[in-house]
Design brief:
It is a single chain. The chain is an alpha/beta fold and 215 residues long. It folds into 2 domains: 37 residues; 174 residues, Carbonic anhydrase (Beta-carbonic Anhydrase, Chain A, 3-Layer(aba) Sandwich). The protein contains 9 helices and 5 strands. Strand 1, helix 3 and strand 2 form a beta-alpha-beta unit. The protein is globular, with a radius of gyration of 19 Å. It binds cobalt (II) ion. The site of cobalt (II) ion has 7 residues, from helix 5.
């Protein structure tokens, strides 16, 4: 790609932004004025960084409706300062009512974790998915088709990440005081549809005793 083309593809974003701003103001002259007063989203979305799974777009929601954290393969890692800061702010300050972990079929991170190829630093991150695989090894190894096996690992990964949320002090403290619902979803890149895995957790008793904090 030569320099002119590179500049053009970058400029596309600024042009798109101008159109966005104009059309929002056309629909509602007060749109940005209202947004600038503050945010009160009901949802925290923990999704994959994959460019094909934008939280607002796939749920037909507007700016201000979803607080978002994204990383490779939508992981909830109990030592991740970034994730924990987002979770704490969303739960304690914004007081979101729902935390959603949304994985997606065709996830490159999940697929990479299933193999034995070295990728670099990211292997430390993907190790969390390998641990999920190991936990469900018997079930996963029995699935011959690799795509189907990856799909199942994607679902199990979401289930485990929702459980990881339930294991945090942040979530358990919130449960003591109010209702907070944790959900696990998977998005299909091939059809644009979200499947609810029905792994709803809303109380401390939903996880094993060893992970429950006395408070
Ligand atoms: Co992904």
């Amino acid at each position: 790609m030569d320099n002119t083309l590179m500049l053009d593809s970058y400029k596309k974003l600024i042009d798109g932004n101008r159109r966005f701003s104009l059309s929002k103001k056309f629909e509602d002259p007060e749109y940005f004025k209202k947004l600038s007063l503050g945010q009160k989203p009901d949802y925290l979305w923990i999704g994959c960084s994959d460019s094909r799974v934008p939280a607002n777009e796939v749920t037909s929601t507007e700016s201000g409706e979803i607080f978002v954290h994204r990383n490779i393969a939508n992981l909830v890692v109990h030592t991740d300062a970034n994730l924990l800061s987002v979770l704490e702010y969303a739960v304690n300050v914004l007081k979101v009512k729902h935390v959603i972990v949304c994985g997606h079929y065709g996830c490159g991170g999940v697929r990479a974790a299933m193999g034995n190829t070295m990728h670099g630093f990211v292997d430390n991150w993907l190790r969390n998915i390998k641990d999920v695989y190991h936990k469900y090894e018997t079930e996963l190894d029995a699935i011959q088709d690799l795509d189907k096996r990856a799909d199942r690992l994607t679902e199990l990964n979401v289930v485990e990440q929702v459980r990881n949320l339930a294991k945090t002090v942040i979530v358990q403290k919130a449960w003591k005081e109010r209702a907070l619902h944790l959900h696990g979803w998977v998005y299909g890149i091939n059809n644009g549809l979200i499947t609810d895995l029905s792994v709803i957790h809303d109380e401390k008793e939903d996880i094993e005793p060893i992970y429950r904090f006395e408070m």
